[in-house]
Amino acid sequence: MSSSRSEAFFATAPRGLEALLQQELLSLGARTAESVAGGVAFTASWEECYRANLRSRVASRILWKLGEFGYSNENDLYGAVRGLDWPGRFSVEKKIRVNVTAQKSPLKSLEFATLKVKDAVCDRFRDALGKRPDVERAAPDVRIHVFLEEAKGTLYLDTSGEPLFKRGWRSEPGEAPLRENLAAGIVMLTGWQPSEPLLDPMCGSGTFLAEAAAMARGRPPGAKRAFGFQKLKSFDAALWAKVSSEKAPDEQTPSLYGSDSDPEALKSTRRTLAGAGVERWVKIEQADVLQRVPPGPAGVMLMNPPYGERMGNADELARFYPLLGNHLKKHYAGWRCFIFTADMRLPKLIRLQPSRRTPLWNGALECRLYEFRIVSGSNR
How many other C-beta atoms lie within 10 A of the C-beta of residue 295? Predict the structure, then answer.
């Protein structure tokens, strides 16, 4: 398969970051890119697909589009999937997983649809080779995705493997409260430049700081992990060696600061930064957010205050926000302060007028990124 021929792909992303992902993919060499709800449809060569997997900070997955088909029932679905040359895409020894998502589909059961897709793929292998690939849900070699609309289905092969927010450097079990690609997108949305200070005064597990440091240093987010495209028959090892050895853009030395009142949170931050190999560029200290003074006369402050389940109840937050607003007015004149939260009461309670509010989703949780430009005196 030609490495320069244009293929169709779909990159998924946290909702609200689609336009940012579109710009990023174009900057990484995509030939066309169109943002839609939940991601970006783009065309690119395999070289550009490899580069996007390695370097995209915002994408969740990059899916290779194999085709579209019309359908009205499970048998149509089975026939369309079986019609593809699966043995030409990957070897029968690879373990597979099938994911089916749907919007307004007439099919009654997605579980049954998933079973039909799996059977169609396996039957095609059995017809061609006399054996079938095994199914593996936890750590498959190959992930097959099907998206079903009212009368149309689309088939994809996953070129990412594990989702791209898994950078390969987090040592702690479980997922961070904030996925890395959402954190990276939020840092980008603030407009922060490595030449100005960035402070996270409630740094928790340090995700904002790690992503900002990696950006400034030009560290590819996928440098420490493997990808799904390496398991496909179309994989070009020489091309991948070329892409993965490309020199990063100019490295910059950022001014990054983090603090938290919880010593355990600071330990978690240090582990995160060490795992990402960026600890030397971030200054960490223990401090309460309501006593933390800025490290310079101007810069970007970014925080994701614990809401609801992580910080007691709504009453506690209702007491905290006005104190935070007063502290920012008193000490942070000249700073652009960004607060990412699912608590829509924040602007009213903090008693500051947001200059911008960007809707974002943290998984299924609707959130806002509020920007407050702090000026001397009142900002109401």
Answer: 16
